[in-house]
Design goal:
Blueprint (H helix, E strand, L loop, with lengths): L2 H11 L4 H8 L5 H8 L6 H11 L3 H4 L5 E11 L13 E5 L8 E7 L13 E6 L7 E7 L2 E10 L2 E5 L8 E3 L1 H6 L3 E10 L4
C-alpha cells in the first residue's frame, strides 16, 4: 500500500472520519485529509511525523520508498559575493520522503561561481539541512550579518574560515571577535546539489 491507502486504512480501522483528523491537526475542514487520501497531496515532513504518532506507527510504516514530498526553494545564495537569501519563495522541488525526515530541509538557488570546483554551478539548487553546527570541511550555508554565502567551512583557532572552491576567490577568514560582531552563524549543511540545465 502507498501513503494514501495506508492513511485511509489506519483512519477507518480506528473508526475516525476525515473531519476527526482535520480537527486534531487544526484544519478548518476535512479537505486537506481528503487530498491526502486521494493522492493529490502529501503532508510535509513535520506533519508526517505527527500523523505517525497519532496512528501509533512509525513514519516508515506510513510511507513507501517511492513517495516524494515537496521541499520549498526559499531563496538564493551567493556562491561568490554575499547576498540576502531568506524568505523568498521561489517554488518547490520533490524529493523522496525518506530524504526529508529527521530535520528541516529547504532548497536555495545558487548565484555566483565560487563553488564550481565542488561541482556547484550558478543556477543549481542546493539541498540544505537546517542546523547550527557542521563538521569542519563541510559545505554549508553561512549567514554573515544579514547576508548568506555558500562555502566550505573550516574551524581554526576559535575562528572560522569560509573556503571557496574556485581559485579566483580568496578565503573569508573571521576571528571569534568577528563572529560575535558580525553575527556569523551556520544556517545549514548542504546535502546535495541539483543541476539545472535551464
Amino acid at each position: 500500500m502507498d501513503f494514501k491507502e495506508k492513511i485511509k486504512t489506519y483512519r477507518k480501522d480506528r473508526g475516525l472520519s476525515q473531519q476527526d483528523i482535520a480537527d486534531y491537526f487544526g484544519y478548518k475542514s476535512f479537505t486537506t485529509i481528503q487530498k491526502w487520501e486521494d493522492g493529490s497531496s502529501i503532508p510535509p515532513a513535520k506533519t508526517l511525523k505527527r500523523l505517525a504518532e497519532f496512528f501509533g506507527v512509525s513514519v516508515e510504516d506510513l510511507i513507501s520508498d517511492s513517495e516524494k514530498i515537496a521541499i520549498p526553494i526559499l531563496g538564493t545564495v551567493r556562491g561568490g559575493l554575499l547576498r540576502l537569501a531568506q524568505d523568498e519563495w521561489l517554488g518547490q522541488e520533490l524529493v523522496p520522503v525518506e530524504e526529508s525526515l529527521g530535520g528541516e530541509y529547504f532548497y536555495l538557488e545558487v548565484i555566483g561561481d565560487s563553488m564550481i570546483n565542488a561541482r556547484i554551478y550558478p543556477g543549481d539548487l542546493v539541498y540544505v539541512k537546517r542546523q547550527p553546527i557542521v563538521e569542519s570541511g563541510t559545505i554549508a550555508v553561512v549567514l554573515v550579518g544579514d547576508e548568506a554565502t555558500l562555502k566550505r567551512v573550516y574551524y581554526k583557532d576559535n575562528g572560522i574560515i569560509l573556503h571557496p572552491e574556485n581559485p579566483k576567490y580568496e578565503d573569508m577568514i573571521y576571528t571569534q571577535e568577528d563572529i560575535e560582531e558580525k553575527n556569523i552563524q551556520v544556517i545549514g549543511e548542504v546535502i546535495h546539489s541539483k543541476i539545472r540545465f535551464k
